[in-house]
Write a structure and sequence with these properties.
The structure is a single chain. The protein is mainly α. It is extended. The two termini are 25 Å apart.
Length: 70
């Protein structure tokens, strides 16, 4: 999961292009846009290792926050 600050103009363009139905949520719209933009991108073994490492760091951070909140 990631978050970012994006100019409103860009958001409007993405929503206009990728909203297929008036009931589409923003999550669905932005997922479509991102998936479309990377359709032909191939990740390397190192990329997948980096992803796994980041997921593990995030898991440890969540666990640490949970343990310290008690």
């Amino acid at each position: 999961m990631a978050s970012a600050t994006v100019d409103i103009e860009i958001c409007k363009k993405v929503e206009k292009k990728y909203r297929h139905d008036e009931k589409d949520s923003l999550s669905v719209i932005y997922a479509r846009a991102l998936e479309d933009s990377v359709r032909d991108v191939v990740l390397t073994a190192k990329d997948y290792k980096d992803i796994a490492d980041e997921i593990e760091r995030n898991r440890k951070q969540r666990e640490h926050k949970r343990n310290n909140a008690k």
